[in-house]
């Protein structure tokens, strides 16, 4: 059975389909998924979904795009939400210099704050890093001591060398629908990830894999991600290994 470690069922496009998605998971071969928040309301929605549906878990956090909205009240709320039994991670948090929707200094400050928050709550983290791997690595190295509960580089798009640096820090590396794109160009990175650090995700409703590009992504399309990675990773059963990794990291 597969585990989707990054699914935005809390997105307005998927929320009306939550019950149907949950219901169909066993027949689609999906054991569980993590609904990931990106600011306070979406984090509350993720937790609500996780409490309503047995196969859903939740992550709470502020996305780099929304860093400019972060407040102490948000962090206090995340503390409360993280005490609930299905809240398994702090995320998605990080740096996004591609869109730059929040000032970079603000992104960095909020990233620091949430890394410390995750450590104090004894939770792993889900990192969204885009066009900012250098700064992210520097910040994560500064926070080496705060990474003891682990974390995952979601939708990894960096180099093999950079991947090895994140692995050295104890982190996991997740891939989604982008692996099916013709221009993905990073099969070598996927091949180089240590088996015990590899994770699968959809990032639904975004990152829809081939052959459904142009439609909203949904958790069952994770099968296309598994199949593509399996072509490159003949050394392991991608499904078995990634699901075991997800259970271990997120204590599912
Ligand atoms: Ni996401």
TrEMBL record:
Tagged with keyword Hydrolase: yes
Cellular component GO terms held in the UniProt record: cytosol
Annotated keywords: Hydrolase, Metal-binding
One GO MF term attached to the UniProt entry: hydrolase activity, acting on ester bonds
Residues binding a divalent metal cation 2, per UniProt: 128, 154
Ligand binding (a divalent metal cation 1): 6, 8, 92, 203
Entries under InterPro entries matching the protein: DNase_TatD-rel_CS, Metal_Hydrolase, TatD-like, TatD/YcfH-like
Keyword Nucleus: no
Sequence intervals crossing the membrane: none
Designated name of the protein: TatD family hydrolase
Species in which this protein is naturally found: Candidatus Stercoripulliclostridium merdigallinarum
